[in-house]
Amino acid sequence: xxxxNLIFISTLIAICTSSMCAYGWxxxxxxxxxxxxxxxxxxxxxxxxxxxxxxxEVLDMKNTTIYVDLNGYDLVFRYINLNxxxxxxxxxxxxGGEVILGNEGFxxxxxxxxTVNLEGGSHFFTFDNVYLISELFRTSTFNYEDSSPNINAIxxxxxxxxxxxxxxxxxxxxxxxxxxxxxxxxxxxxxxxPNTPGIDENQDLDDICVDKGFSIFxxxxxxxxxxxxxxxxxAEKINNDVELNWATASEKNAxxxxxxxxxxxxxxxxxxxxxxFGNSNTRHDYKYNDNNLYNDVYYxxxxxxxxxxxxxxxxxxxxxxxxxxxxxxxxxxxxxxxDQVKVSISGINTSQDVVYQMFDGNGKLIHSDVIQSxxxxxxxxxxxxxxxxxxxxxxxIFQNGSSIERKKMLFK
Length: 412
Hints:
Largest sheet: 12 strands, parallel
Mean pLDDT: 77
Helix content: under 10%
Oligomer: single chain
Radius of gyration: 22 Å
Structural class: mainly beta
């Protein structure tokens, strides 16, 4: 495997110039991923909401490099065409954030398969904290250039979910040409194809980042590291008002928080600003009130440091309709045993506790806990789980009164 790494590195050139290293991240839109690029240089796109390609939409790139920061959101692809191009995807929020190939749709309706084409020495990288998923009940087809003289590679720094329905055309099964699918982790789920020839698990890919010609990869992962450790973020509905409360465990060069609101989780508006403490190693509590509301609403926090860098927390959902929408989000939904997991719960019936149970792959109950009733209809806090359990897929059931949410969690 070291041999492959050396070949791969030697065929590429340094791509971080002094003008690039400022990383001018732009807010990404759906149109950015349904577009034809031709010799467009380098682009830096940061998501502010989930983006799902339409059934006929195509990301078509030629002689172009695009860097994407998922920022905790999901990116769903239908078509990706890379010709002498690079698509690098990070998730700097370190929670949430998945790249999904194919769309299951609603009970199989309205979904679609996915196609990824690589030629001319193209590279599709997904980094730490990005889970690359081929939708299980759809077919993803990976087309590599036949007998390519250049290296076309998909490389993941995380576990990868590959469907047993997927196709791999011209993958480097016999090592006689340069098409690779390298994974710094495992092919997950027992019904998948972990032994597909040409797909290499548990590979040491550090050389790609450490080599000075690829320093931009390390820099992007470190860039915008934020100085705030958030303990909690909660929302309380009071008649037609919402009171937002959050707390930090530590702050370093933190300037302020911007409170944002959305009615569709895609279009956000800034409704207020709260000054941060700045520098501290102790807890600080914050509050913001939003008044005169009548429709269901989402909130999130944008934390800004003194250098202008920013990070988002949330979103939280608050229901004002007749039916409260009980919703649970695990952040991340795949992690290493012992690492912190955050759970965002919204639409809570405040007269009832939230009870959750964790089961292993054999259906055995291994943990249960209660989040006691408070005045908050939405909350974000740490998920408690036993750190002595084994690796694998676990199943969680959250119940709040008559409302139930089921989630999956992969522990490595």
